[in-house]
Design goal:
By secondary structure, the chain is mainly β. The protein has one domain: 2,3-Dihydroxybiphenyl 1,2-Dioxygenase, domain 1 (Roll), CATH 3.10.180.10. The chain is about 10% helix and about 30% strand. It is built from 3 helices and 9 strands. It has helices at about 40-45, 125-130, 145-155, and strands spanning about 30-35, 55, 60, 75-80, 85-90, 110-120, 135-145, 160-165, 175-180. Strands 1, 2, 3, 4, 5, 6, 7, 8 and 9 form a 9-stranded mixed beta sheet that branches. The relative contact order is 0.21.
């Protein structure tokens, strides 16, 4: 349990699954991550001792003002001790679900789970399934690119179309990552 969310992590019998390969990127179709939200991303990253974790991002990144859908969002991607990718976000006052801005004493600790992201091949076909068949609502869309995205993803010349969907406000959602570059 983290904040108001409960995440169940299931284990599989020994030998039933393969570990992440040594070399991979967010643009690989099998890629997925869980996103946590903090009210003090910098303090949380320092407390995690990123030198002891596998890091994806070169350092915490603040998304630029030219990108109005994401401007001011701070992000850092890293790996847990088993190599699973995680994302840590801090939303500015005008972004993110209202639950991330409820009055409370800032702690820097994760407040909850914002989304699970999955790399996809085609936004429209993914929306046709998740929205039209499963009933998820479209929450937002945008395109991230530039040096901040490169540093966040650990990839060169990154351009990624991001689509956020979810069951309702105040609930963990799904984020589609449609990498246009690198392929």
């Amino acid at each position: 349990r983290l904040g108001e969310e409960t995440l169940q992590i299931w284990g599989w019998p020994a030998g039933a699954c393969a570990p992440y390969p040594d070399s991979w990127g967010g643009n690989d179709r099998w890629f997925q991550h869980i996103c946590l939200v903090s009210d003090n991303l910098t303090a949380q990253v320092e407390a995690m001792a990123p030198d002891r974790l596998g890091v994806i991002s070169s350092a915490p990144q603040t998304l630029p003002d030219w990108n109005p859908a994401a401007a001011g969002i701070q992000a850092f991607k890293f790996k847990d001790p088993d190599g699973h990718p995680l994302e840590l976000l801090q939303f500015p006052a005008d972004k993110g679900d209202p639950r991330w801005h409820q009055a409370q004493v800032p702690s820097g600790q994760p407040k909850g789970f914002d989304h699970s992201a999955i790399s996809i091949a085609n936004t429209e076909s993914s929306l046709a399934f998740y929205r039209d068949v499963l009933g998820f609502a479209l929450k937002g869309q945008g395109v991230n690119s530039g040096i901040e995205q490169d540093r966040m993803d650990g990839l060169p010349q990154t351009r990624v179309a991001i689509t956020a969907i979810g069951p309702s406000a105040g609930a963990m959602g799904i984020e589609f990552l449609n990498y246009q570059s690198p392929p």
